[in-house]
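Please, structure for the following, as tokens.
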Amino acid sequence: MIFKILRFPHPLLRKKAKAVKKVTPEIIRLIDNMIETMHAAPGVGLAAPQVGESIRLFVADIGEGPIVVINPKFIKKSGKQTLLEGCLCLPGIEAPVERAAHVKLKGLNRQGKPFELTAAGLLATVLQHETDHLDGLVFIDRVADPSLIKYVDRKKEKREEII
């Protein structure tokens, strides 16, 4: 099932999400539907608040298969990198965001088992971006220079590629 993705400034996107107490069949179904929604969008990450569920859960896929993180907590961040970010709740908006280049986080997997994940580059940025959603933040909150926030017309861009 593909969910409708909430658009900024929906109030739920500004709320701190609650921890998941137990991985239930409903949570597993939510995860599967979020992965389907993320791929259909298309996007590289999707947090539960973006689909109307104020719980600490996100999915990500940078082309290496889906990652599920429940109750994420960063245990290490190092280095700096600036990547151009966008968001499914702010369609067409892009801006450079500086974040940690290397991260290590802990959380629960889709079976509710504890695990740790170490990431660098794009995946490190995606993990930080999605965790921000669980804290009521969107990427434009982290843009150092607001004049760098741009609107990109995807429809126009695609037409030009065809020509």
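Residues 158-163 have pLDDT under 50 and may be disordered. The longest helix spans residues 25-40.
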